[in-house]
Amino acid sequence: MCCCDKPTINGELGYKWNDPNAPAGIYPVNPPTLAEGDKLLYDEPGRCGGQDSHCHHYRVVTRSGSLFLLVRHGGGDESIRLSNGKVLLYGLELLDRARYWTLNAIFHAQSNAKQEARELEASRWRKAAAEKRIKTRKQRNSDSVKVWIAS
Protein backbone atom coordinates (compact mmCIF):
# COMPACT_ATOMS: atom_id res chain seq x y z
CA MET A 1 0.00 0.00 0.00
CA CYS A 2 1.31 3.44 -0.95
CA CYS A 3 2.14 5.49 2.14
CA CYS A 4 3.60 8.58 0.48
CA ASP A 5 3.15 11.70 2.61
CA LYS A 6 2.22 13.75 -0.46
CA PRO A 7 1.53 12.91 -4.11
CA THR A 8 4.80 11.62 -5.55
CA ILE A 9 5.91 11.05 -9.15
CA ASN A 10 8.30 8.16 -9.85
CA GLY A 11 11.89 9.40 -9.77
CA GLU A 12 11.17 11.88 -6.94
CA LEU A 13 12.10 11.44 -3.30
CA GLY A 14 9.10 10.78 -1.07
CA TYR A 15 7.91 7.29 -1.99
CA LYS A 16 6.95 4.98 0.91
CA TRP A 17 5.48 1.49 0.67
CA ASN A 18 3.52 -0.34 3.40
CA ASP A 19 5.13 1.55 6.30
CA PRO A 20 4.29 5.22 6.87
CA ASN A 21 7.18 5.42 9.35
CA ALA A 22 9.78 4.12 6.88
CA PRO A 23 12.27 6.59 5.43
CA ALA A 24 11.22 8.10 2.13
CA GLY A 25 12.72 6.52 -0.96
CA ILE A 26 12.61 6.92 -4.71
CA TYR A 27 10.45 4.69 -6.90
CA PRO A 28 12.51 4.09 -10.05
CA VAL A 29 11.39 5.40 -13.43
CA ASN A 30 10.80 2.43 -15.76
CA PRO A 31 9.32 3.60 -19.10
CA PRO A 32 7.99 1.34 -21.86
CA THR A 33 10.50 0.73 -24.64
CA LEU A 34 10.19 2.82 -27.79
CA ALA A 35 10.19 0.98 -31.12
CA GLU A 36 12.36 2.18 -33.97
CA GLY A 37 10.66 5.12 -35.67
CA ASP A 38 8.51 6.06 -32.65
CA LYS A 39 8.30 9.79 -32.00
CA LEU A 40 7.79 10.48 -28.29
CA LEU A 41 5.12 13.10 -27.59
CA TYR A 42 4.42 12.62 -23.88
CA ASP A 43 6.22 10.69 -21.16
CA GLU A 44 4.23 10.20 -17.95
CA PRO A 45 5.94 8.18 -15.18
CA GLY A 46 3.90 6.46 -12.47
CA ARG A 47 2.66 8.39 -9.46
CA CYS A 48 0.23 8.55 -6.59
CA GLY A 49 -2.29 11.05 -5.38
CA GLY A 50 -5.70 9.77 -4.35
CA GLN A 51 -4.78 6.50 -6.06
CA ASP A 52 -1.61 4.41 -6.06
CA SER A 53 -0.40 4.15 -9.65
CA HIS A 54 3.37 3.94 -9.20
CA CYS A 55 3.51 0.72 -11.24
CA HIS A 56 2.10 2.24 -14.48
CA HIS A 57 4.27 4.32 -16.81
CA TYR A 58 2.62 5.82 -19.92
CA ARG A 59 4.08 7.20 -23.15
CA VAL A 60 2.21 8.69 -26.09
CA VAL A 61 4.00 8.26 -29.42
CA THR A 62 3.36 8.60 -33.11
CA ARG A 63 4.17 5.49 -35.10
CA SER A 64 3.69 5.27 -38.87
CA GLY A 65 1.29 8.21 -38.77
CA SER A 66 -0.85 6.76 -35.98
CA LEU A 67 -1.05 7.69 -32.32
CA PHE A 68 -0.22 5.00 -29.74
CA LEU A 69 -0.34 4.75 -25.97
CA LEU A 70 2.56 2.67 -24.67
CA VAL A 71 2.15 1.25 -21.18
CA ARG A 72 4.55 -0.54 -18.84
CA HIS A 73 3.11 -2.13 -15.71
CA GLY A 74 3.74 -5.17 -13.53
CA GLY A 75 2.46 -7.49 -16.26
CA GLY A 76 4.81 -6.14 -18.94
CA ASP A 77 4.44 -3.74 -21.86
CA GLU A 78 1.33 -3.00 -23.90
CA SER A 79 0.69 -0.85 -26.94
CA ILE A 80 -2.74 0.63 -27.63
CA ARG A 81 -3.60 2.38 -30.90
CA LEU A 82 -5.54 5.56 -30.17
CA SER A 83 -8.16 6.73 -32.66
CA ASN A 84 -8.84 10.28 -33.78
CA GLY A 85 -5.31 11.33 -32.95
CA LYS A 86 -5.53 15.04 -33.80
CA VAL A 87 -8.47 15.70 -31.50
CA LEU A 88 -6.95 13.62 -28.71
CA LEU A 89 -3.57 15.35 -29.09
CA TYR A 90 -5.27 18.73 -28.77
CA GLY A 91 -6.93 17.56 -25.55
CA LEU A 92 -3.71 16.07 -24.15
CA GLU A 93 -1.88 19.29 -24.95
CA LEU A 94 -4.34 21.26 -22.81
CA LEU A 95 -3.85 18.93 -19.87
CA ASP A 96 -0.84 19.22 -17.63
CA ARG A 97 -1.08 17.51 -14.25
CA ALA A 98 -4.22 15.63 -15.31
CA ARG A 99 -2.60 14.11 -18.44
CA TYR A 100 -1.30 11.09 -16.52
CA TRP A 101 -4.69 10.35 -14.98
CA THR A 102 -6.43 10.73 -18.35
CA LEU A 103 -4.02 8.21 -19.93
CA ASN A 104 -4.57 5.97 -16.91
CA ALA A 105 -8.35 6.11 -17.48
CA ILE A 106 -7.93 5.31 -21.20
CA PHE A 107 -5.68 2.35 -20.43
CA HIS A 108 -7.97 0.89 -17.77
CA ALA A 109 -11.11 1.36 -19.90
CA GLN A 110 -9.43 -0.49 -22.78
CA SER A 111 -8.08 -3.18 -20.46
CA ASN A 112 -11.50 -3.79 -18.89
CA ALA A 113 -13.21 -3.92 -22.30
CA LYS A 114 -10.61 -6.44 -23.53
CA GLN A 115 -11.16 -8.64 -20.46
CA GLU A 116 -14.96 -8.52 -20.81
CA ALA A 117 -14.71 -9.45 -24.51
CA ARG A 118 -12.45 -12.42 -23.67
CA GLU A 119 -14.85 -13.62 -20.98
CA LEU A 120 -17.88 -13.25 -23.28
CA GLU A 121 -16.20 -15.21 -26.10
CA ALA A 122 -14.98 -17.92 -23.69
CA SER A 123 -18.52 -18.24 -22.31
CA ARG A 124 -19.90 -18.57 -25.85
CA TRP A 125 -17.46 -21.39 -26.68
CA ARG A 126 -18.06 -23.17 -23.33
CA LYS A 127 -21.81 -23.14 -23.94
CA ALA A 128 -21.32 -24.43 -27.51
CA ALA A 129 -19.05 -27.21 -26.21
CA ALA A 130 -21.60 -28.22 -23.56
CA GLU A 131 -24.28 -28.34 -26.26
CA LYS A 132 -21.91 -30.22 -28.62
CA ARG A 133 -22.22 -27.54 -31.32
CA ILE A 134 -18.48 -27.10 -32.05
CA LYS A 135 -17.73 -28.42 -35.52
CA THR A 136 -14.38 -29.10 -37.20
CA ARG A 137 -13.35 -29.90 -40.74
CA LYS A 138 -9.86 -30.59 -42.04
CA GLN A 139 -9.04 -28.44 -45.05
CA ARG A 140 -8.32 -30.46 -48.18
CA ASN A 141 -4.62 -30.59 -49.21
CA SER A 142 -3.63 -28.69 -46.08
CA ASP A 143 -2.71 -29.22 -42.44
CA SER A 144 -5.19 -26.56 -41.33
CA VAL A 145 -8.53 -27.25 -39.69
CA LYS A 146 -11.66 -25.10 -39.88
CA VAL A 147 -13.43 -24.74 -36.52
CA TRP A 148 -16.84 -23.09 -35.99
CA ILE A 149 -19.91 -23.06 -33.80
CA ALA A 150 -23.00 -24.50 -35.44
CA SER A 151 -26.22 -22.61 -34.79
Strand order of the largest sheet: 3-6-7-8
* Total of helices: 2
What does the average pLDDT come to?
94
The class by helix and strand makeup works out as alpha+beta
* Helix content estimate: 25-40%
H/E element order: EEEEEEEEHHEE
What does this structure look like?
With about 150 residues, this protein is an alpha+beta fold. The protein has a domain at about 30-130. About 30% of the residues lie in helices and about 30% in strands. The protein contains 2 helices and 10 strands; from the N terminus they run ββββββββααββ. It has helices at about 85-95, 100-130; strands at about 15, 25, 40-45, 45-50, 50-55, 55-65, 65-75, 75-80, 135-140, 145-150. The strands form 4 sheets. The protein has a 4-stranded antiparallel sheet with strand order 3-6-7-8, with helices on one face. It has a two-stranded antiparallel ribbon with strand order 1-2. Strand 9 and strand 10 (about 145-150) form a beta hairpin. The longest helix has about 30 residues, at about 100-130. The model has no long low-confidence stretch (mean pLDDT about 95).
Task: Describe the secondary-structure layout.
Blueprint: E1 13-15, E2 25-26, E3 39-44, E4 47-48, E5 52-53, E6 57-63, E7 66-73, E8 76-82, H1 85-94, H2 99-130, E9 134-138, E10 145-149
Antiparallel strand pairs: 1-2, 3-6, 4-5, 6-7, 7-8, 9-10
